Amino acid sequence: MSVNVEIKLRRANKIYYEGETISGVLQITCGSEIKHDGITLLLEGLVNLTISNKNVGIFEALYNSVKPITLLNQHSDLAPSGKLPIGITEIPFEMPLICPKEPKILYETYHGVFVNITYLLKAEVKRSFLAKSVFKAQQFIIQYRPVRPAETKSEISFSISPETLQKTAKERISIPRFLITGVLDSTETCVTQPFTGSLTVHHTEVPIKSIEMQLVRVETCGCAEGFARDATEIQNIQIAEGNVCPKIAVPIYMTFPRLFTCPTLITKNFKVEFEINLVVIFGDDYLVTENFQIMLNRTS
User: Fold this and answer.
1) Which backbone phi and psi does 154 adopt, to 5 degrees?
2) SUPFAM superfamilies recorded for this chain (predicted)?
């Protein structure tokens, strides 16, 4: 006797905002008539925090005390005990997306390494021990409502040379002479808009092999016992290959990957922040990096 359960949401893109009602149908397909002990639906939203292995020894108390943060936990009985006929049975459902307790806000869906924010609908067709219950889970996405952007955006100018690098005087002697300047259109960017700017190589003693841009997420987990901070690379794009012609502006253009990024999030238990690394690799494999902290938001 085969039983197949599907959760079909009314909204095809599965994107919802806090305060809305998530609705759909629970579709159950049966090869023959079956008995069941009730049909339930659970709406669950969790922030799962993980401490990296390198911090377990240092933050042992922290490691043992980090627990998931519950954002949503609503249970609904869709049908009492009874029978399901042969064929397809559809049971409609509606559940409000409201966080009932602290933090009283539904954070955006985010898939990180040490911080994961997920929202799930979990259906269960309860059956006897011998027949085994049937389970089905469906993930959906929570986003912040877009807000009006700031009226002005300030450009950020930067300059990279041996003098700007934080090196000792002895190390500076061995660094090839070069000068790279540029501008970032803004360090505050909407997650749905590209990160843009430009850079110009004015001169260099050693030919440049490649110029790359890294997007890095910085995740911080903690509680009263302490905090653990870990940075991981999300993506790396090459904006120039080979020796760059001097005094020609090279455009900077990076889009943000959905789910692996979210608006910058700072709470008392965890943080999700983002940085940009501009990496210049010279022909002799000498590498210099310039770091920029960025603020992501969601604007209309």
Assistant:
1) -95, 130
2) E set domains
Rounded Cα distance between 226 and 6, Å, is 43
Q: Are 8 and 60 in contact (CB under 8 A)?
A: no
Model confidence at 23: pLDDT above 80: yes
Dist CA 11 CA 125 (whole Å):
23
- Can you point out the beta strands (E) in 87-176? 87-96, 110-111, 115-125, 134-143, 156-160
What's the predicted TM-score (pTM) here?
A: 0.85
pLDDT at residue 150 is higher than 60 = yes
pLDDT value for 89:
94
Using DSSP's 3-state secondary structure scheme, residue 221 falls into: strand
Residues 6 or more apart in contact with residue 9 via CB below 8 angstroms: 22, 23, 24, 138, 140
Per-residue tokens: 190:
């909407």
Report residue 131's pLDDT band, with 50, 70 and 90 as the boundaries.
confident
Q: What pLDDT score does 226 carry?
A: 61
Amino acid at 128: S
At 84, is the secondary structure helix, strand, or coil? strand
- Runs of H (alpha helix) within the chain: 60-65, 169-174
- Per residue in 223-240, pLDDT (tens digit) is 555 678 889 999 999 999
Question: Using 50, 70 and 90 to split pLDDT, how confident is the model at 21?
Answer: very high
Tokens in use for 2? Answer: 């085969």
The type of residue at 259 is L
Q: Integer distance in angstroms from the first to the last C-alpha of the chain?
A: 50
Number of residues assigned to the chain: 300
- β-strands 39-49, 188-190 pairing: unpaired
